[in-house]
């Protein structure tokens, strides 16, 4: 029997069965990637940039095929899948642009005594070989956020996608090769956990660029030893609606940033804090807009919400909703299931310590939480172990600045939701949401070191 079976989350049909790569194959690949550092050293920045530019073009040319692959293996709707490829194009393009401008700085030694009349020239150099580990939910764009900057910086790359994403990942790697990346500098393997742990702890891996959940991150951190780590982890991101908010815009952001991708997004609006003064009006508009969403087959053009990634994920989210309801939460919409599909669900009166809101819930459910003043809001949000992004709808810039200063997050979006992301902006969280920053220029630095020449 094969080690892994890719199942279509919507139809339940098997897509492909395969064997995981072994420890020996991991060792061989790393040895080859170490040798290939010479190839990268001989590839100047302008050439790396041109390859990434070509990759961006190829992503656009192959957009529909890639979107279909993502849709089949994740059951993200076809439109969400297309949006992901558009984003990946931007990520590749930004990687191409940044590859040409990895500039350092010059320092004057005589800023401090004694006088030595030296100049320090500081440049960024590649770390060597980077292990990139990605999750199931954005298999192309998250992979691009790792491969693009790692390649731009001049590293060789071992790419380990989520097991469900073998086919889209293979296609992405084929496009990287077609764009001109030497086969020796980028290798993709899907080993089992034991062989992945071997790669994580391997002394010739200089950095681990990981996106995924806390449990895997803890295991990687324990295995890695002295390696650079860029971790993009979970979130329990708040969207705040103030009394002066544009309620229609806030509803729109909630729909797009909580129900798209069936809520399986790190930066999804997972907790809604709505001021008492506008709570009823907001809830009414949100329920009405949610009732218009089409739920079902992700292949149909107008479907907005498809299934969760697998039955265990749907079971977990459904159980959290049921537990919250049994403890007194009121269902304003949804709470219905069919196969792996969970209907978009809106709840009121969820207890602050319910698992549904205290943990990261990866599904299409909006818990609405009333609040009366700012002072009450900050600890409610900061009490989470996560701190990824936040959004606030308000016309009050002074309030927005106070929230920016007080919330433990990596980004606060004003008049937008926590799901805001521009691929070239710094991206990452604080606390258990991660370490380091993605966003192409910042990721390049995470996967480089500063080397100084004194003359
Ligand atoms: N902050 C971000 O940028 C971001 C983006 C997307 C997803 N996520 C997070 O990812 C999670 C969902 O994705 P998932 O279910 O695929 O995550 P996951 O942690 O289960 O898996 C992520 C990857 O890690 C691998 N992995 C698992 N255990 C490992 C171990 N012990 N050692 C090495 N690798 C291991 C998996 O095979 C997979 O490739 C959520 O928590 C979500 O918030 C974060
Ligand atoms: O899962 C989150 C990745 S992103 O869409 O916020 O980049």
From TrEMBL:
It comes from the Bacteria. Residues 4-452 form the Aldehyde dehydrogenase domain. This is Aldehyde dehydrogenase family protein. The active site is at residue 232. InterPro entries: Ald_DH/histidinol_DH, Ald_DH_C, Ald_DH_CS_CYS, Ald_DH_CS_GLU, Ald_DH_N, Aldehyde_DH_dom, ALDH-related_metabolic_enz. Gene3D superfamilies: Aldehyde Dehydrogenase, Chain A, domain 1 (3.40.605.10), Aldehyde Dehydrogenase, Chain A, domain 2 (3.40.309.10). It holds the Pfam family Aldedh. Signal peptide: none annotated. Belongs to the aldehyde dehydrogenase family. Keywords: Oxidoreductase. The lineage of its organism: Bacteria, Pseudomonadati, Pseudomonadota, Gammaproteobacteria, Cellvibrionales.
